[in-house]
């Protein structure tokens, strides 16, 4: 089943060169945060370029349920009339976050220090994912939570009536956990301190500062120390959401492995906490260049130009880079199948608790398509067969995971035989225009009979 409907089986056939421009949609992380921070501001936040994927639409609906006025003006232009920090109303219904871990974890943080109760649920994927990583630190503020065994959704959170500020060292590299604690800290008096040993995506910190919160970030021997002063009045903003590097990864990787391809992916944010995949591909010998480098809204941005790269080499991906490319390992493993030699990916335990167990989902599917994959609890290796030598031909399970679905469709574009997936429905959570965009470049995608 896809997250919001019947399964959509799809097939990707070997295709001719991919060429043209791939204008990918807005950044998913920034889109969620724009709606949530807009809802926590006093006045009207205007957003352009919002990702209208199901994950973000579910967050928009949630913000309405907590009392914000969220309006879709068409063409990616949205506005949010916020209720202010501490101003959330109690929702009358269960909050359905669909497939989105970012949505549910950030919203839990945002309501945790208000005197309201809310119940959260999601699809089968989200309801299997760990929530204690968020409810444990929220309990330090005084928030109570009642969920299923193993800290799973559906779950009810009772917001702290008299929240206290918190100092919390995030035990795993997770921007969602960091962000949940910071959002909860907004309505606690005094200073909330979050320490992360490894830098993860820093959109929450940047955007909180943009909305007028008082926040400092220090690099120390213990890691990044983020100090937020609670109970600010957040000021509404005009936000132009940059295009998503995690979506750009798909046309970029496809262009590198399909012979003769030359694809331009305009306006991609190259925030160092997000751009690890592109560095890794270049280390593998990819013909990937940054054109028209510029700064937009305080973030480094470039047009990415990806050309067919016949001489890709397997590498050991530095584990220090994992957090900056955590969502890109599935599609990297596809590129690795077309490289000469082994690609080694270590320090990636978090891949096992994403929308699916992404190591397992990719390992099973790649093996079925003729690729050797080895795996351990927090590492995996892909032994590349080199360009033109990847058999393909199998049908893979997408496990309600958009990035698994898109990765196998990219595999089919350059394999010797077509690759199918059981369900392309989840693609709509993050990249609703994937199919027309990729076929517009020359991919041979089709929906098959269920
Ligand atoms: C995200 C953080 C990451 C990432 C997810 C988006 C965010 O999750 O995988 O797609 O927007 O904060 P973790 O916090 O679980 O690493």
UniProtKB/TrEMBL annotation:
Reactions performed catalytically: 3-phosphoshikimate + phosphoenolpyruvate = 5-O-(1-carboxyvinyl)-3-phosphoshikimate + phosphate
Chief location of this protein within or outside the cell: cytoplasm
Keywords tagged on the record: Amino-acid biosynthesis, Aromatic amino acid biosynthesis, Cytoplasm, Transferase
Tagged with keyword Iron-sulfur: no
Any GO BP annotation: amino acid biosynthetic process
InterPro entries assigned: Enolpyruvate_Tfrase_dom (IPR001986), EPSP_synthase (IPR006264), EPSP_synthase_CS (IPR023193)
Region span, Disordered: 1-25
Tagged with keyword Nucleotide-binding: no
Domain of life of the source: Bacteria
Cellular component, GO, one term: cytoplasm
Binding site for phosphoenolpyruvate: 28, 101, 129, 176, 358, 403
Enzyme nomenclature, EC number: 2.5.1.19
Positions contributing to 3-phosphoshikimate binding: 28-29, 33, 174, 176, 327, 354
GO molecular function, one term: 3-phosphoshikimate 1-carboxyvinyltransferase activity
Pathway noted in the entry: Metabolic intermediate biosynthesis; chorismate biosynthesis; chorismate from D-erythrose 4-phosphate and phosphoenolpyruvate: step 6/7
Active site feature: 327 (proton acceptor)
Enzyme class: transferase
Domain Enolpyruvate transferase, residue spans: 15-436
Subcellular location(s) of the protein: Cytoplasm
Subunit structure: Monomer.
UniProt record similarity statement: Belongs to the EPSP synthase family.
Function in brief: Catalyzes the transfer of the enolpyruvyl moiety of phosphoenolpyruvate (PEP) to the 5-hydroxyl of shikimate-3-phosphate (S3P) to produce enolpyruvyl shikimate-3-phosphate and inorganic phosphate.
Protein name per UniProt: 3-phosphoshikimate 1-carboxyvinyltransferase
Protein's organism: Roseobacter insulae
Gene expressing this chain: aroA
């Amino acid at each position: 089943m896809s997250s919001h409907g019947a399964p959509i089986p799809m097939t990707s056939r070997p295709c001719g060169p991919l060429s043209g421009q791939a204008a990918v949609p807005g950044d998913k992380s920034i889109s969620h945060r724009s709606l949530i921070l807009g809802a926590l501001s006093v006045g009207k936040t205007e957003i352009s370029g919002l990702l209208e994927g199901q994950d973000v639409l579910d967050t928009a609906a949630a913000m309405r349920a907590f009392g914000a006025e969220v309006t879709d003006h068409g063409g990616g232009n949205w506005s949010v009339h916020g209720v202010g920090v501490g101003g959330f109303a109690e929702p009358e219904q269960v909050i359905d976050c669909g497939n989105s871990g970012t949505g549910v974890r950030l919203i839990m943080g945002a309501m945790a220090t208000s005197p309201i109760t809310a119940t959260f649920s999601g699809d089968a994927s989200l309801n299997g994912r760990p929530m204690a990583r968020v409810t444990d630190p929220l309990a330090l503020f005084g928030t109570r939570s009642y969920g299923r065994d193993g800290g799973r959704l559906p779950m009810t959170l009772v917001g702290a009536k008299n929240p206290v500020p918190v100092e919390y060292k995030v035990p795993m590299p997770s921007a969602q956990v960091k962000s949940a604690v910071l959002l909860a800290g907004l309505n606690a008096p005094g200073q909330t301190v979050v320490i992360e040993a490894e830098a993860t995506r820093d959109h929450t910190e940047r955007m909180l500062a943009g909305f007028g919160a008082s926040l400092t970030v220090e690099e120390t021997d213990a890691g990044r120390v983020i100090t937020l002063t609670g109970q600010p009045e957040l000021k509404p903003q005009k936000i132009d959401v940059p295009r998503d590097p995690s979506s750009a990864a798909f046309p970029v990787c496809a262009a590198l492995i399909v012979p003769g391809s030359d694809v331009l992916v305009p306006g991609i944010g190259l925030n160092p906490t997000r751009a690890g995949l592109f560095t890794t591909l270049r280390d593998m010998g990819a013909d990937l260049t940054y054109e028209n480098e510029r700064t937009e809204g305080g973030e480094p941005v470039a047009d990415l130009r990806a050309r067919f790269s016949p001489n890709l080499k397997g590498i050991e991906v530095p584990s220090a880079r994992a957090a900056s490319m955590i969502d890109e390992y599935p599609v990297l493993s596809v590129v690795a199948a077309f490289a000469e030699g082994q690609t080694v990916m270590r320090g990636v335990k978090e891949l096992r608790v994403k929308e699916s167990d992404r190591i397992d989902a990719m390992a099973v599917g790649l093996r079925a398509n003729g690729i050797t994959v080895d795996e351990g609890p927090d590492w995996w290796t892909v032994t590349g067969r080199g360009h033109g030598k990847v058999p393909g031909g199998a049908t893979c399970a997408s496990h309600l995971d958009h990035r698994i679905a898109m990765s196998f469709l990219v595999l089919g574009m350059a394999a010797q035989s077509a690759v199918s997936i059981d369900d392309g429905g989840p693609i709509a959570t993050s990249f609703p225009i994937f199919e027309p965009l990729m076929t517009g470049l020359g991919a041979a995608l089709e929906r098959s009979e269920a």
